[in-house]
Write a structure and sequence with these properties.
Layout lengths: L5 H14 L32 E5 L4 E8 L2 E7 L2 H4 L3 H4 L5 H10 L1 E8 H5 L5 E2 L15 H10 L2 E4 L7 H10 L5 H15 L4 H15 L7 H13 L1
Length: 234
């Protein structure tokens, strides 16, 4: 007999909501982010300008475009650009609090960081996403990809579903903003919606609509659920 996929899907939904916004795990007993590796931790000699870099995490992948000279452009949720013009403060490594507030405010920035700050100790895959595009003609030239990334540096809107770090790199390297992680996320939500046997799953979907779609907290539950169901089923 086939196992009921709903509990697994509900669990994955909650994990995705937190992990897709790039929240870094904090060490036990610590109130601060783990410091990134020291400069030189990664061998960048194999990276070329315009390469698409992937950093796999437990349940998500973070993306960036390599610009050369140990610099990576990547999109991150961040509240600070919306409330401060201090460029030196903004350029500091984004903390968990800034990330969460950026997601809530739907504000982000395309920023340039060192490879160490971008990867944060994770392993790096180079141009691994190319395999997902059967038409290799869609891969733009390396210099074109890097220039696109550089032109987008600065404050931008953020959406877990419509404008995340994966949309940014696919636009730069392939000419069209797409997110395979978002597609999988939406398929999970649809699977939960279609199985009407789980009340808990319906509640989780409602919470997801608040986080992802910015539904006002004062909205009644039917107003939250019905538009979200219709939007996902469409």
């Amino acid at each position: 007999t086939m196992k009921n996929p709903v509990p697994q899907a509900a669990s994955l939904l909650l994990e995705k909501l937190m992990l897709l916004v790039h929240i870094r795990p904090l060490p036990a007993g610590s109130g601060q982010d783990t410091p990134p590796p020291a400069p030189g931790y990664y061998d960048t000699s194999c990276f070329k300008r315009g390469d698409l870099l992937e950093v796999p995490r437990t349940l998500f992948i973070h993306f960036g475009i390599y610009l050369g000279e140990n610099r990576v452009a990547h999109l991150m949720p961040d509240i600070l650009p919306a409330i401060s013009a201090d460029r030196r403060q903004i350029q500091q490594v984004v903390t968990n609090k800034r990330l969460i507030l950026g997601v809530i405010a739907r504000t982000a920035s395309v920023r340039v960081d060192t490879v160490e700050d971008f990867a944060y100790g994770g392993s790096i895959l180079v141009n691994h996403m190319d395999r997902l595009f059967e038409d290799q003609d869609r891969v733009l030239g390396s210099e074109e990809a890097a220039r696109r990334a550089e032109k987008l540096v600065g404050t931008t809107a953020y959406s877990l579903l419509w404008n995340n770090c994966e949309h940014f790199v696919t636009y730069c390297r392939y000419g069209a903003p797409v997110s395979f992680q978002t597609d999988k996320f939406c398929e999970t939500v649809k699977m939960i919606i279609r199985d009407q046997r789980s009340v808990l799953a319906s509640v989780l979907v409602g919470l997801a609509s608040i986080v992802c779609l910015g539904v006002a907290p004062s909205t009644t539950l039917p107003t939250i659920f019905i538009p979200f169901f219709l939007w996902m089923a469409g």
